[in-house]
Design a protein that fits this description.
With 122 residues, the chain is mainly beta. Helix content is 0%, strand content 50%. The strands form 2 sheets. Strands 2, 4, 5, 6, 9, 10 and 11 form a 7-stranded mixed β-sheet that branches. The radius of gyration is 13 Å and the shape is globular.
């Protein structure tokens, strides 16, 4: 049984930072493709960042490149998203996801999803 639990969301002012966490069970951050997605009201879900352990690759949306960093702690089986220099356009519900096939920013490649954590930037 796969469980993905996000935490770390909140409300911050523009220019501030947050670090999101995704505690995983039933999947391994060392072997599974792991990604972060977000969805704002009235908008489609979009891929933000992902990590491919098979090839050591990371993926970032152009809108967050240079500001967000995806990482993992193998011992804790936890994935993180460090978000710096936040702006109001980053406001969304952020979701952690895990997949076992292709890896990248397409949500169709992910099988399991967390419940989401809200990020609000004003």
């Amino acid at each position: 049984h796969v469980q993905l639990v996000e935490s770390g969301g909140g409300s911050v002012q523009a220019g501030g930072s947050l670090r999101l966490s995704c505690a995983a069970s039933g999947v391994q951050v060392t072997t599974n493709c792991m990604g972060w997605f977000r969805q704002a009201p009235g908008k489609e879900r979009e891929g933000v960042a992902a990590m491919d352990p098979a090839y050591g690759r990371t993926f970032y949306a152009d809108s967050v490149k240079g500001r967000f960093t995806i990482s993992r702690d193998n011992a804790k089986n936890t994935m993180y998203l460090q978000m710096n220099n936040l702006n109001p356009e980053d406001t969304a519900m952020y979701y952690c996801a895990a997949g076992s096939g292709n890896c990248g920013l397409s949500d169709s490649w992910y099988n399991d999803w967390g419940q989401g954590t809200q990020v609000t930037v004003s």
